[in-house]
């Protein structure tokens, strides 16, 4: 699938229009179960015309006026974490939790939702991976350890939880939202006016997040962070879901993706690319599909290799030919996600912004322009069969030099991020995420 093309983020995102607003497709009526892969349902938009009120307040601070809008960097901030919960992510989840105080230490009012990259895949039995499909969770990783979510290939990774968390469960206090003034227990963490929704006595917001951010390593290995993001945000706008009301019009929205893999947000109409249609497989003689399908089905690299000038996102039909029809692309086009974020931006008030920040497979210094992402085949043919491309970054492993930490280039995520403005992508191949996490709350 690596044929000649000129990479231009602007061109890759051009021509995304032609359809109605994605928000127009939402329904406020009861939808199907959250494990339905077709979620969310289509339906009539909410045309009540009611204007949203200011952001929610904690039940214990009734009468206090929450921060609404103001100069850039002073309005509230809604943070959606989309966390890779697969077998290679234990250390990264622990590091994310360890460094989370860099976000909580901001003076801005916070609302933090957490989901995973697992939306299901034909290669992942749902009964084993239990895909979240954008559902948010506040549960402690200690409970997840007991349920076996920190076991992968018969290896125990529970240290990713126990090294940072000692609390189970974390009790959440009921709170109102601007859409639902009656206090309810919400599937997110919140701090408004200096008061959090943590009901567990003596537990800080930092401690609660340290227990919630490690999401385990038993998730589907065909990660779909963009589709998971989309489902989570649509749930936040669907009155039939617990996540309804998470988004505040006066608040900045920052989507934070943490993954070491490429995006594999596929169209279920073409799920045979993981089973019987081997056109995107790196090695068709293999007995099963690998993550290489996700790279090959989502990019178009320039040049014959082994090093490529660029590998922009591309839309391929199930026959391996380029397609201009978004519904015929085997992976959902990046425009699907850029349009959603653009529509949410259009709904913002008071100068609030929509941003995407990622901790992913880019080299250290990428966010400052001190390094560039290089696309090249992996020198190990077997590894290239697994991933379809060499690593975007590498972190040496002092304990086992033969097995360094690696992460693959996040092409599709980069192009969605570029649609929002300057890129905010940080390398996952480092042993401290403090600087990246601190950026979440910065204007």
Automatic annotation (TrEMBL):
<feature type="compositionally biased region" description="Polar residues">
    <location>
        <begin position="64"/>
        <end position="75"/>
    </location>
</feature>
<protein>
    <recommendedName>
        <fullName>VWA domain-containing protein</fullName>
    </recommendedName>
</protein>
<feature type="compositionally biased region" description="Pro residues">
    <location>
        <begin position="34"/>
        <end position="43"/>
    </location>
</feature>
<feature type="region of interest" description="Disordered">
    <location>
        <begin position="24"/>
        <end position="75"/>
    </location>
</feature>
<feature type="compositionally biased region" description="Low complexity">
    <location>
        <begin position="53"/>
        <end position="63"/>
    </location>
</feature>
